[in-house]
Amino acid sequence: MEGFDDEIESILYIGREISVYKIPPLKANEGHRANDWGDLAQPLWKGRLRFIEKSNTAALLFEDGSSGELFAKADYNPLKPCVEAVLDSSRYFVIRVEDAGKKAYIGMGFQERTDSFDFNVALQDYTKRAKAALNPPTPTTETSPSPHIPAGPKKDYSLKEGQTFSISIPGRASKQASASLLGSENSGGGASGGGIPLLPPPPGGGRKR
């Protein structure tokens, strides 16, 4: 991969001790099984696995744990993954590696299930990010109305020709009623006035002793 080694490298996962196996050809429509690889205690190779990302590419590197010498490399494409789980174990996988245009399939095994779980999570996280980068959301140019604004034609609240309106001010009506009442009292007690009659003076107009 041209220019791959000149870019900043991000390590997505490291498997400190993994085993590599030579696997038999795949039987049609049956899937791979680790039990078909012979004695799993006698792998073809042992070393470390690094899952790295550079720019928009990623790869699985099988390296010597001490010297870092490369044993095999598998370019990881999220649209065409090079990793396949076996049918009979969660610790073993089949990896498609390429060298100078030639493809080969090798078996890979982890010592612990927790290591294989972390490896799966790293693959899933990268695949999700890579697919999101390939399919970014399309921005919309049209602005949709706010859901908080009711739809429909605007109402016309302007006064038409000849229309009037009145404003009721609190307290004004009671003051007008009081003024009307006082006015009727001052006008006298005639029957025609319609006011409240005045009370007659008390009997015996003498002064109090």
TrEMBL record:
Instruction: Please identify the protein, giving its name as recorded.
Output: Adaptin ear-binding coat-associated protein 1 NECAP-1
Q: Which domain of life is it from?
A: Eukaryota
Query: What is the species of this protein?
Result: Leucogyrophana mollusca
